Amino acid sequence: MKKVNCFKCKHFHTTWNPSFPRACKAYGFKTKEMPSALVLKSTGTECLQFEPKHPDETRKRHQTSSRIDFRL
């Protein structure tokens, strides 16, 4: 399984608390480290709540072809 990037997850958010600057809305906790790292350390499995922030954007970006026209 590939490593979860919390910055690309819709459940990740930052807090104003300098002691706990990162948080996960799906699991409902705040932490100093990346939430996915804490989930891995606590449960022994990768984060199962990961959802991309903009799933439609990632699909569009991969499906569109280049719009550059090379005519000589």
UniProtKB/TrEMBL annotation:
It comes from the Bacteria. Residues 51-72 are annotated as: Disordered. This is Uracil-DNA glycosylase. It comes from Halobacillus salinus. The lineage of its organism: Bacteria, Bacillati, Bacillota, Bacilli, Bacillales.
